[in-house]
Amino acid sequence: MTNDSRTWNASDVLQATGGRLVYGDEEIRFQGISIDSRTINAGDLFVAIAGQKHDGHNFLGEALAKGALGVLVAEDYFSMASPVPRGEELWIAVPDTLRALGDLAAFHRRQSQVSVVAITGTNGKTTTKEMTASVLGQAFEVLKTPGNFNNLVGLPLTLLGLNDSHEWAVLELAMNRAGEIRRLSEIAHPDLGVITNIEAGHLEGVKDIDGVIKAKGELLEGLGEQGTAVLNIDDQRVCRLAEQFDGRVVSFGIYSSAEVWGTPVSQTRSGSSFDLCWYDESVRVYLKIPGKGAIYNALAASAVGYRLGLSIEEVKKGLESTVPLPGRMEISTLPGGIHLIDDTYNANPGSVAVAIETLRSLKGNGRGILIMGDMLELGPHARDAHKEIGILASRTGMAGLYVTGEFASTVAEGAAGAGMDHRKIFIGTQEQIVEVLKGRLGPGDWILVKGSRLMAMEKVVQGLRSEIGKREL
Questions:
Q1: From residue 62, how far is each of 24, 322, 353 by CA, in Å?
Q2: Quick one: what percent of the chain has pLDDT higher than 70?
């Protein structure tokens, strides 16, 4: 990744990371910083990150052969038998290369004149990030998190893309264990923080819902009393954090008691709409994204725009130009008038419940069908959480429930126990679900496909599109 506003020299790297100069000239200047030997540019510094699948230390030779002027490695690397090359390149050693990457990004962020919005929450982070960037883009030059670069690798890489033209950075912060958001906040040093909601998610890493609250609250710790927190006042767990925050709070919600609110709310097959309100101003906003969750995301982005002095019309324009992201409440109509909701990007109990409610609202008099894969990282809460989804599917009148994964029988058990006819429930592989379901669909049916990222439920979406598409041949 190359930064086009300034170059780095070795002394910058040493200052930022507290690293040890092993070999080379401190006056060497780097054009950018990279962690990927496949895409590195000549003149870059290569940071060797040990990931889950690959260790960057195994690709030092490739990075240098492609023109890297230096490498940043772990001190442990020198306990191996590998000799240190004695060319023109620079070698710097640090105790932890992942932390050093964050330190480099934090150094670069401090050197820039940019301000930062950091967004976290159990659900809706990415859509809120997209909406916020679109809103702020009406008045400022904005850098935003690309894709899901929201962790201890992705966020630093995003910040390293800052250049002199940027005025605001809109960053997404994710976590799956305690302390991660604290570290991400240290790196990003946000001026304004957004918490979309707090639900049961990543319980495997934080034990229980109180652990989630505490983990999300790490963002407010990073803001300090000089920062601004944009908080969902309709979420009682978020309100608990608001009571502990000493800085400025801007509240949003679907009630007039919030500083920025939206009402009334309506949904169509192509999106949703609401009246955006603050003070004595209001404007009707039409979103291209369906569901109550999207409206909350829009209100969060609106509250950021409001806090930064944008007009309500500028906020409206930014919101209405935001389009659905792949795998996030993405609706398509298949041959025969069959409607497919692709919400396969990820899943936790809260997001599944919101998606089911959206399905029930959209289907009207049509049949609602839920295709469900496992919700992961729930630890000891997994069985109860999956059973509750089955109960919800039954109580919301789903015409069919198709489940796959380790907890498929648990979801089915919950649905049957809540009164769903067992003939409406099918347990099988993704391929079996597609094969069985394709012959049972008709005009006006609405299908929701949901599951955690590692379940790859998009395979079901692709399979249905392919099989139903054959009907037109």
A1: 19, 40, 47
A2: 96
